[in-house]
Specification:
Keywords: Membrane, Transmembrane, Transmembrane helix. The chain crosses the membrane at residues 20-42, 152-178, 199-221, 351-372, 393-412, 424-444, 456-476, 482-504. This is PepSY domain-containing protein. By secondary structure, the protein is α+β, with helices and mostly antiparallel strands. It has four domains: 1-47 and 126-233 and 330-378, no CATH class; 48-125, no CATH class; 240-326, Nuclear Transport Factor 2, Chain: A; 382-537, no CATH class. It is built from 16 helices and ten strands. A hairpin with a 6-residue loop joins β9 and β10 (316-319). The longest helix is centred in the last third of the chain and has 33 residues, at 346-378.
């Protein structure tokens, strides 16, 4: 396919600058986003098995719920029933809520003992997985605009630039696509190898990246989009609404749970109920938000589909289940959620999104490396200040975000032994590690910080399974080890990351010591990574 040279250059320039402007923020979003595919596993790993109270028999849920509502009337405002093994049967928030990152949430867990008596315990919520999700949605940018975090809007703009970079990249790659798509020419030069890797990742996962870029933009600016569409729809509501009831219900009138579950089964026979969130049980607008699971279809939430039902009359207001009656716009919006979250295909779908998320982070990192390599060739004698700054930003932001997350994970179980707010500690650890790494890149230079940073990340990753070993050998410490397949998997993934970063750090060191002297990645042999003499390059 032939395209005029001037058109190719235009799209290449567009691709380069949109990619650079958006890449570093999106690196954080993609890396953290890949981890959010296993938020449930992270929560389970970060809390001891004793954190959850024993499950009850299905027939005991009604009795347990009524006892909770009598003993703790506040629970009628919002109470959750959980049916999965390994989870307390009933929980409700004493402080905070399940929405967003909160540093001081407190949740009551309740069950019945062998004598049928109510047992309720108040616990702090470990927000480690929410920290990862917060970084995924905001890239760690602090502050709020209106009712949402400022970082959400910044990533929305970055995703728009990212979409332009995707399209322009494909256009200027078209003339050589068939010849170079599967070529990884490692024998020619490092720049050629990184270019081939960058192109292969970008083109092979193009549908995934288009979905992510589009959905992030929609999530960030949905209020503006709805406002614009409202001008077209006028007074006609875009989304299905339920008329507000004039009846004030009382919890004593609440039907048996068996009846509610039967109504759900009739509406969604191919789904299983994961949990039920009751709200406003003593008010005019009571609701039951029912989380449903079917791994064989596209689910519209992070891990489940949803169904909203009036818990006293079983009237369904909206749902996202396949074949449901949620309306055109609700169906479109919920499909965006499902495609972004990867909530389909069960564990296979989650692992696929996990891998593609990591490859997306690599895509942005290699894009910056390619720009720096190209500038190195254009500036034979000395690197420009812009090249040096971008190299430091690339290393500092990318490795700083990974090191911050790894530090929070590595410290999690040890922090639980201290009488402090563990969620505040997570935030301090992340931001302190991030800014120390970023500062080190500017003080000591990109190559030295890259080598040391990756080795520190590797050690932090190795410390995660080592903590489990310490817990097994020295139970007196109060630590706990991985206790099932899910928690063991978290530690195996951490160890895998550790091996990968250690190998990459050695390769980076080898390249730095043998690189061209005019490269931003060059490190003199007399300035090995064991020395921390500031680099003024």
């Amino acid at each position: 396919m032939k395209i005029r040279a001037d058109i190719i250059r235009t799209y290449q320039t567009l691709h380069t600058w949109t990619g650079i402007c958006a890449g570093l923020l999106l690196f954080i979003g993609f890396f953290a986003g890949s981890l959010t595919m296993f938020r449930g596993a992270i929560d389970q790993w970060a809390t001891p098995a004793s954190y959850q109270l024993p499950q009850v028999q299905e027939a005991q849920y009604d009795e347990l719920l009524q006892k909770v509502l009598v003993a703790y009337p506040k629970a009628a405002n919002s109470v959750s029933l959980h049916f999965a093994e390994g989870h307390s049967p009933i929980t409700w928030y004493e402080a905070g809520s399940a929405r967003g990152l909160s540093l001081d949430d407190q949740v009551y867990h309740a069950t019945l003992n062998d004598s049928g008596e109510l047992v309720a315990e108040l616990r702090h919520v470990n927000e480690l997985s929410m920290l990862v999700d917060y970084l995924h949605r905001t890239a760690g940018i602090i502050g709020e605009i209106g009712h949402d975090q400022a970082g959400v809007y910044v990533l929305g703009i970055a995703s728009f630039l990212y979409f332009i970079a995707l399209i322009s990249g494909v256009i200027f790659l078209l003339p050589t696509l068939t010849k170079s798509f599967f070529a990884l020419r490692s024998t020619k030069s490092k720049a050629r190898f990184w270019l081939d890797t960058h192109n292969l990742i970008g083109v092979s996962s193009l549908p995934f990246h288009i979905i992510i870029s589009f959905t992030v933009f929609v999530f960030a600016f949905h209020d503006l989009l709805y406002g614009g569409l409202a001008q077209v729809y006028g007074d006609k509501p875009m989304f299905k609404r339920t008329a507000e009831s004039e009846i004030v219900y009382q919890v004593e009138q609440l039907p048996k749970l068996l009846e509610l579950r039967q109504a759900v089964r009739e509406y969604a026979p191919d789904y299983t109920i994961n949990n039920i969130d009751f709200s406003g049980l003593n008010k005019q607008g009571p609701s039951a938000a029912i989380k449903l699971v079917n791994a064989d279809t596209l689910m519209r939430g992070p891990i489940t589909d949803f169904l909203y039902m009036q818990p006293y009359t079983f009237e369904i207001s909206t749902s996202s289940v396949e074949g449901g009656d949620q309306g055109v716009w609700s169906s479109i919006v919920s499909s965006f959620f499902g495609l972004h979250f990867g909530s389909f295909g069960g564990d296979f779908g989650r692992w696929a999104y996990f891998i593609m998320g990591l490859l997306g982070a690599i895509l942005f990192y290699t894009g910056n490396l390619l720009w720096l390599e190209k500038r190195r060739k254009a500036q034979v004698l000395e690197q420009s200040r812009a090249s040096t700054i971008l190299a430091k930003l690339t290393v500092g932001i990318s490795l700083g975000s990974i090191a911050g997350i790894a530090c929070a994970f590595a410290a999690s179980k040890w922090l639980s032994l201290m009488s402090l707010n563990i969620n505040v500690a997570y935030m301090w650890l992340y931001y302190l590690t991030f800014f120390v790494t970023l500062g080190a890149a500017f003080i000591y230079g990109a190559p030295r910080t890259a080598i040391l940073g990756m080795r520190i990340i590797a050690l932090l990753c190795f410390s995660i399974p080592i903590t489990s070993v310490v817990a097994l050998v020295l139970p007196v410490t109060g630590l706990w080890s991985a206790y099932d397949l899910t928690t063991i998997s978290v530690e195996l993934v951490a160890a895998t990351f550790g091996v990968a970063f250690w190998i990459i750090s050695n390769k980076t060191a080898k390249r730095a010591y043998s690189n061209d002297k005019n490269s931003v990645w060059y490190l003199p042999a007399n300035k090995m990574v064991t020395t921390l003499t500031p680099n003024r390059v």
